[in-house]
Amino acid sequence: MLHITTKYFTKTISLISSILIVAMLSISPAQLAGAEEVSQSGESAQILQDFNKQHLETEHAKAISDKTKQRIMFLLGVALLTLVLITGGLGLAMGLYGKQVFVPHMVFAALSVTLAIVHAIVGLVWFYPF
Fold it and tell me: pTM to 2 decimals?
C-alpha cells in the first residue's frame, strides 16, 4: 500500500513539475517584461515635470530656516545643560551627604543621555555639510 501511494505521489509531482516547466517556457520575455511598452510622449514628460515642480515647491514650503534651527538647538542645549547640572547635584548629594536620591539621580541621568543623543543627531542632520 505504501509503495502504491509513493508511486502515485511521485507521478503527481512529476506531472505538476512538467506542466509548470511547459508553462514557464511558453511565456515569452516580452510578456514577462510587461508586453506593452509605454512610450514617453510629450504629454507624459510634461506631467512628470509638473509633478517635480510641485514636489520642489512643497519641500521649499516645509523647509525650516537656519535661524529657527539654531534656536531649537540652543533650547535643546539649555535643557541638556540643566539636566546635567541636576544629575550632578543629585550625585553630589548622594556621595557627599548620604542622601537617598539614587532613583531620581538615575532618572535624570537617563534623561540627560537621551537628550544628549537627540541633540547630537539633530546637530549632525541639520548642520553637518553633506
Answer: 0.54
